[in-house]
Design a protein that fits this description.
Order of helices and strands: HHHHH
Strand content: under 5%
Distance between the termini: 32 Å
Radius of gyration: 16 Å
Structural class: mainly alpha
Low-confidence stretches: none
Oligomer: single chain
Mean pLDDT: 90
Shape: globular
Largest sheet: none
Number of strands: 0
């Protein structure tokens, strides 16, 4: 990566809003999951890496939703927690019985939430 590209990347990270950063993280997770689905080789290192990244991301969202200092309404926080629980259950199912089709709901959730955060929903 060129010095200019690195500088731009650092600047865009420091000027991005929390919503933009969350949307970018969700899209990154969706891309990783999509790559696994598109290049399915069975349960391999890439699958576990993508599922782990997505699970950690949703763990952060769920923890933030539980925080009483969270500025979102209780309903929004409950919806985030419910989606997070679905993601966790679905991830375990994928690890126990790997199937590339099972990645689609995780990819769709991440893309839809990212679009909403970016104001495109």
């Amino acid at each position: 990566m060129s010095n200019a590209a690195q500088a731009y990347a650092r600047t865009s990270q420091t000027t991005a809003s929390p919503r933009e950063i969350e949307a970018q993280a969700l899209l990154r997770a969706a891309r990783q999951l999509q790559e696994v689905q598109d290049n399915w080789n069975g349960p391999d290192r890439n699958m576990h890496k993508a599922l782990t990244f997505n699970r950690r991301l949703w763990s952060i969202f769920m923890t933030a939703a539980e925080d009483n200092g969270n500025p979102n309404t209780l309903e929004v926080r409950q919806n985030i927690a419910n989606l997070g629980m679905f993601v966790m259950r679905h991830t375990v199912e994928m690890q126990l019985e790997p199937d590339p089709a099972k990645l689609k709901p995780l990819i769709d959730i991440n893309c839809n939430i990212a679009a909403g955060l970016a104001g495109r929903a």
